[in-house]
Amino acid sequence: MKKISSVLMLLMLALVPVMAGDDKKETIVLPDVEMIDVPTAGILDYYGFMVKTRFYSEGGVLGSLNFGVLERLNMGASMTVDKLIGSASPIRMRRPEIKVKFRFFDGGYYMPATAVGYDSQGYYYNTVSKKYLEKGKGLYLVGSKELGVSNLVLHGGVNVPDFDNNYFFGFVGANYTVEDKLAFMLEYDNLFHSDDPSRLNAGTRIYITPYFHLDVGMREIGRNGNFPNGDRRKAERVVQLKYNTSF
User: Are 144 and 99 contacting, i.e. CB atoms less than 8 angstroms apart?
Assistant: First the structure.
């Protein structure tokens, strides 16, 4: 019963802003600040606010908050709760992680919009090592640019997830938006190092309103194997609820 109550509370918090409505007249969707796992150079406006809830494998829930604290600076935090949904136990709440993004170039005719950021949120927490088996982005540099086709945007960058090893990883993604109602996302993450395999992710974003989005995605498509500690590594389905507003 506690798990059911917690899930209902999360859904109510996500849906209240939608049911309440919005007095704003704009119908154009806001820029995407992230896709499934890959960040973009998009940022929230000054005084902007975004709440995201991701439902992932084995009943886990990831919640995050992001704020537009300055004109070009976003800051936020995220936290995962394993086994919150379903009958499995025990429920485990993991430590909060931080995220920061600063967009220092808005882009031009030839050059992409560019941002630098830090995101420590990983996936698949290991209780023995007290680290995520899939590391967060860490320090990253990302660029986003619309290609020759309208509403087709390419994102790409490099990141250093672990300062102990100082390995550079890469990521690339693209999204195509159809009439501000539907977007298709494809990303290839965690590139350059065979000992930490790459990930192919895909998903669909439904713009229920310009400020409320529903994402349905698949992570690690075609992946079948084990993590270094022996845990199973396989494809997983994720669902995300995202709401954007401003103070």
Answer: no
